[in-house]
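Methods: holo model generation. Sequences were used as deposited, without trimming of termini or removal of tags, and paired with ligand SMILES retrieved from the corresponding compound records. Each pair was processed once, and we did not select among multiple samples. The sequence and calcium ion SMILES for this entry were:
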Amino acid sequence: MKKLAIALLLASVTSLAACDGGTNAALKALDPDNDGTIDLAEAQAGGEKIFAKINPDNDGTLDEKELSGRLDAAGLKAADPDNDGTLDVKEYAAVIEKKFKAANPDNDGTIDKKELESPAGQDLLKLIY
Ligand SMILES: [Ca+2]
Ligand SMILES: [Ca+2]
Ligand SMILES: [Ca+2]
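and the model returned the structure below.
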């Protein structure tokens, strides 16, 4: 029993460490001015890269399949005011801005590491990294 508890503990510590490493790597990649935080311009720059990356057919829009794992169907619907079932670059930038605001409760214009690790921050991260 004790062994199992230790194994479980180790497993959770390992996954925590992996998660933390992921956030650190993301922060580093998204923070070219290296001030330890992500501002909206940096978030949008990351978003542009992801948009290009997950749009291999290069038709200028992202459909539900291309967005899978980043934005669920409800998220797509909310981010799709013209209701054509896809996100163009403008709609994608708008949803990033919305999620950026949600992940920045102290409203200081930047996402710090702690904010990035919050559920809202992870939600934003899926769209920009
Ligand atoms: Ca920065
Ligand atoms: Ca649309
Ligand atoms: Ca902040």
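The longest helix spans residues 2-30.
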